[in-house]
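Protocol step 6 of 9: fold each sequence in the batch and record its structure tokens directly after the sequence line. For illustration, a two-sequence batch is reproduced in full.

Sequence one:
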Amino acid sequence: IYVVRLAGGAPSLLLVGDSKPADPTWSPDGNSVAYSSSPGPNGSEVSILDIQTQKSNTLPGSEGLGSARWSPDGKYLVALNSGASRIMLFTFATQTWQELASGNLGWECWSRNSKFVYAMAGDWLIRIEVSSHKRENVASLVGFRSTAYLQDRWDIGWFGLSPDDRPVTTRDTGVEAIYAFDLEYK
């Protein structure tokens, strides 16, 4: 895992190891990075690197979990199990995991206020309320042709949220359309 300064320049090595660190997510205060590691036959687990000490610790109970995402308020992490069939919620105050949602899931993403986790769930974009675990459908993806770097392998397009929590994704429009854009520089 490398870090590149916002102003540019050469990448600096942040984390390397036999555990194959991947899929990093920064803590809101910028002092830690949670990442997936694959230490052995049990699959991945979630570890946290303290930037100041350069020491990593594995979160208890995170065996078989990966793709961690830190909540904006710093109180939680969510992670997917190895089959992408469950989103698990880690609460730092209690150091415990609990199931937040189940199904065919991917691309978990936090709302800016840390009250909701959005995810792709089969043919739906869903939103799960953290306090109640209530799940609601946000948008149907039936017939939606997505494109992303994982589309060819797992038929999963990319999804994220804009700074004002509006869903953002990629769309496959084919190779025959031509678009023109007028840019306004500010």
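Sequence two, same batch, same settings:
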Amino acid sequence: VSNQSINQKKRSMENFENTQLSEEEIKQVLETARLEKIKKLKYEAYAKKVREELKMPIYTAEQLFEKFKKDMPHIEVDKWNEGIIKDLCLYFTRDERCAERGLILTKGICLSGGYGVGKTEIMTYFKRNQSNSYMVITAEFISDQFARFGYDGIDRFTMPIRNTEQQMNQEFIRICVDDLRTEREKGNFSNKENVLLKVLTQRYEKKLLRQTHITTNLTPDEIEEKYDPRLRSRFREMFNQLNFDPKAPDRRK
């Protein structure tokens, strides 16, 4: 290519650089830039909202108790459940008064009581908290997973569950096994296995005490009869025992 040809192309380019936009084209460019900025601002606002939602507000036990009453107006706080709810507020805010109430923060919670007293709903409410968040999993679901997939189906319940979303700045999410006793013994192929006994025993052996909560209708004697005598003594090591009064009413009636 000759030098003359190159120079001609440069001059042609220079002519295009002086091109002016019409008013309509300027309006279109500005509108496109405006929409892009709105899109960016919306994304930044959304990201900020997500970050704020992932943060767990820090409450005192008293504040958490008042929040419970405000959030759960359909649950009447009365002599049957007030003490238990207040104890849970102390526990999940790691209040120094836990020791006075016999609550040990290195243990989980075992909430027991009759049918319909509100165990599941109360523990479900507290699952997202500032110190010890957990997921609620029914005993029946764990049993079903064993029936379908064998030991592979329950392995994840016997070990720490990493908090991949880093919610509440907690490295691991705990579990609450709900309704211990309703699960059926379910076998994989020709085997029979007391699935919940296996899960709780392994969590005990791995020292996942604070990471394990349960709700149950069983008394300590019934736990020993249904599962294993050793599980009763392990329960004392694993859980803070909170019991509804046997006379507590069935709120579902």
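Proceed to step 7 once all outputs are recorded. Observation for sequence two: DSSP finds ten helices and six strands in the chain.
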